[in-house]
Design brief:
The chain has about 140 residues and is of the alpha+beta class. About 55% of the residues lie in helices and about 15% in strands.
Length: about 140
């Protein structure tokens, strides 16, 4: 006998349940989620859908299960939000730190350029004065 497993989902709850099937030697299929004993289980042929004789209330999710899943999801979302907030705050602090670093570097470069320009202006005035003296002499 070969067995296979299939998974079904409940879209309302987002839950997944597993059921197994066994292929018997005569070609019939018995569903693993059939709640009857193997002697009472009906063999399934080809595309037959397995029947479950369990009461309907056993198939419904229990309130404490949904509440526990909901609490777990809320906790996970809360943890994710706190983590995201922390990462975003650290990102902002890093951007501000980089801005301050770049501002101080630009101020240093600006000071250097001003000192170079000041030296060039002084040299330019000296050259103009020398040109005037030479023009008056000759």
């Amino acid at each position: 006998a070969q067995s296979s497993q299939s998974y079904s989902t409940s879209p309302a709850l987002g839950l997944t349940s597993r059921s197994a099937q066994a292929d018997l030697s005569d070609g019939s299929v018995v569903a693993g989620d059939d709640l009857r004993s193997p002697a009472q289980a009906q063999p399934l042929q080809g595309g037959d859908v397995p029947r479950c004789d369990a009461p309907a209330n056993l198939l419904q999710p229990l309130p404490f299960h949904t509440a526990a899943v909901q609490r777990m999801i809320e906790q996970s979302v809360s943890d994710l939000g706190m983590s995201l907030h922390s990462h975003l705050r650290n990102f902002h602090v890093d951007i501000i730190r980089q801005f301050e670093t770049q501002t101080s570097e630009l101020l240093i470069l600006q000071q250097q350029q001003f000192s170079i320009m000041e030296a060039l202006l002084i040299e330019l005035q000296e050259l103009r004065e020398e040109n005037r003296r030479l023009a008056n002499k000759y």
